[in-house]
Amino acid sequence: MASRLANKWVLITGASSGFGAAAALAFAREGCKLLLGARRSDRLADVAAHAQREGASLAVHHPLDVSQTGSVAAFAEWVGTHTSTLDVLVNNAGGALGIDTVAEGKDEDWETMFQTNVLGVLRMTRQMIPFLTKAPGSMLLNVGSIAGRVAYEGGSAYCGAKAAELQITRALRLELCGTGVRVGTLDPGMAETEFSIVRFKGDVERANKVYAGVNPLLAEDVAEAMVWMASRPPHVCIDEMIIKATDQAAIHKVYRRPQS
Ligand code: NDP
Ligand code: 8X3
Q1: Which residue out of 116, 143, 145 has the highest number of ligand 2 atoms within 8 Å of its CB and is therefore the one to mutate?
Q2: Which of 32, 93, 161, 222 shows a CA-CA span of 20 to 30 A to 21?
Q3: Which of 238, 134, 112, 118 is nearest to 186 (CA)?
Q4: Which residues, 6+ apart, have CB-to-CB distance to 185 below 8 Å?
Q5: Does the predicted model carry a pTM greater than 0.85?
Q6: 242 alpha carbon to ligand 2 midpoint, in Å?
Q7: Which of 121, 120, 5 is nearest to 68 (CA)?
Q8: What is the tens place of the pLDDT at every residue in 21-78?
C-alpha cells in the first residue's frame, strides 16, 4: 500500500545532523518531497543526496539560521519558489549550551538557547502557517524535550526554553483549531546525537560520558516517531508524545551498566 505521506511536502529545520538528518531519511523512505534547512550547507547537501537515494521524490536544501528573522524570511521565500503548500513542518532546530547553574550562567548561552529553541520555532511557524493552512490535514510538529516538563540542575535556560516550546505548541493547537492543521510536540529523553558535543562546546570525551553504560535513544528512533505522528489520518492529531530510552525511567533515573 502506498504511504499516506507519498509526494507530500515536508520541511525539516536542523536537518544537517541528529534527529533532523534521520528524519530527512525516514520521510524520504515514505516518498516525500523534502525541503531541508540548517546553517551547515555542506552537511545539508550530503543529507539531501542521501535522502534522494532513499526514495525522496525531491530533496532540496537552503541555508537557514532560525535565530535570525531575515534568514527565516529568506528561507520562506525559497520555499515559495518550490511550493505554495506544506504538508509537514518539523521545527527541530535547537539544542543546549552549557550545564551552568544560573549563578554561573552566560548571557550568550542563554540568548542562543532562547533564540533557537523558542524564537526560532515562532519565526518558522509564522512564515509557514499560510503554507500549512492551504493543505488541510497538514502537521506542524515541534521537537521539544522531557527537559521542558521536568527541571534539572544546570538546565535552567534549556528547560525553560523547552517549556516555552511546549506552551507555544499548546497555544498553536488552539489557534489553528478549525483550519485542519494538526499540531503536536514530540518530546524525547536522552538520545545520542551531536546534542551533547554541542552542549559541551566540542568536548567529545565529556559528551560521551552522558551515554556511558546506557542504551540511549538513537536519532532513527525519534525520526520513526515523527513519521508515525505525521502519517496519522487527517482527523487524528497526536498532541503530545514523550519518547525515552528504556534505560531512562525519569530525567534523573537512568540505568547505567557497569563499565569495564
Ligand atoms: P544535533 O546537535 O545533532 O542537531 C541539532 C540541529 O539543529 C543541527 O542540524 C543544527 O544544524 C541545527 N541548528 C542549531 N542551531 C540552529 C540555527 N540557529 N538555525 C538552524 N539550525 C540550527 O542535536 P539533536 O538532533 O539531538 O537535536 C535536535 C532537536 O532535538 C533540538 O531541538 C534538541 O534540543 C532536541 N532534543 C534533543 C535530545 C537529545 O538528547 N539529543 C533530547 C530531546 C530533545 P546547524 O548547526 O548546521 O545549523
Ligand atoms: C535533551 C534531553 O535530558 O539532556 O533535551 O535535557 S536532556
Answers
A1: 145
A2: 161
A3: 238
A4: 141, 142, 143, 144, 165, 166, 169, 239, 240, 241
A5: yes
A6: 12
A7: 120
A8: 999 999 999 999 999 999 999 999 999 999 999 999 999 999 999 999 999 999 999 9
